[in-house]
Amino acid sequence: MFTxxxxxxxxxxxxxxxxxxxxxxxxxxxxxxxxRLGDSIALSGVCxxxxxLDGGVAAFDLSPETLARTWLGRAAVGERxxxxxxxxxxxxxxGHLVQGHVDGVGEVVLALDPRAGGxxxxxxxxxxxxxxxxxGSITLDGVSLTIAGQRDGAVGIAVIPHTAQxxxxxxxxxxxxxxxxxxxxxxxxxxxxxxxxxxx
Length: 200
Description:
mainly beta, Elongation Factor Tu (Ef-tu), domain 3, 2 domains, 6-stranded antiparallel beta barrel
């Protein structure tokens, strides 16, 4: 479990194709540690398991499911990733409940100023739009955000300068892909209502 409060930005230092998917090696030295084999780290919102450590560089295996649902399989050497370590008992929940289970991939339709922030507009996959509500929570590339508006299948986010500067959101351009995780509570409510015959 994560909060969507990015703790650092890391860089992909190696990407290799494997028989079962792909493997990324990511520089985690800016992320508060220490880390051990088996720890969960959110890589731009994707919950991944540390399977190797070499100094401050960790290795992560990407399964076919991860490659199909995220853009991580296309991450090249030098790609910058938002990083967050898993929530531990007693840690403050400063963002919202984030699982690190990406629901789909969105597309930037209006980009930010990398220093000043501003309005970020992201087109959300059609099957996820029903979970998006004004003032509701959404996670984009691992960043916990609040939806400020909706139009034409896109959500608008008011991004403060700090967030634009300390996450990768300020570097995204129109057409770039973003991982989308909608509020898990909304999905549970939908399922419970459907089980009672109240969905629709």
